[in-house]
Amino acid sequence: MTENDGRIALVASKTDIARAAAARLREKYNFVPLDEADIIVALGGDGFILHLIHDIMPHRASIFGMNRGTVGFLLNDFHEDDLIDRIRAATPVTLHPLRMTACTEDGGQLEALAINEVSLLRQTKQTAKIRILVDGKIKMEELVCDGILLSTPAGSTAYNLSAHGPIIPMNAEIMAMTPISAFRPRRWKGALLPQNSTVVFEVINPTKRPVSAVADTTEVRHVTRVTIKQDRSIKINLLFDGHRTLEERILNEQFIN
Rounded to two decimals, what is the model's pTM? Predict the structure, then answer.
């Protein structure tokens, strides 16, 4: 490594396979502490990368992930050789998280960030009843459902896709609003919204029909009102091998049976 390559840190998940890979990389390359890094090489799975982003956000360093987990959708393939050349040639992708502001029955308020999605979920056997507002206007007076989510393009192939939401190309500048097991209106499949939209979910009768809100891994229970808006002041830079960028992966997901 040279000064022109930038200062590179190495982090790994706690799994044996990730730790073993990190040990081999440390034998071949020199790494700096995390707080001094311009680039972070991260070894693990998608869950580890999401936790890492949340732990360091906001951080000026770019993340070059290598898969030592399961799916590895947000990561590159793991190879010990040519790491510096791969980083030099990598294609950057900038993500802006969703900022969730959740109000609770006890009068509290909590903020959290989401890279993938913000989801509302019923807490009991009774369905949730949710009013939907977009940019201050009521778009649906009452959705009866198990829940609803708002997804970024990066998260559109995760929970959103499992809930039968659309896959969104990275450069589309839209978000997906997807119902989870909608009971009424039964045939409503969701909506696509401009990424600069402000979305509000109001819980109808939250005492009788309690609802929780989840921003990636942060859960807030007994919410009454949840406001969601993209926070463009925060930039998360991920680096991908040029032959397998995040944009290409998301595009390819639309053609997988």
Answer: 0.89
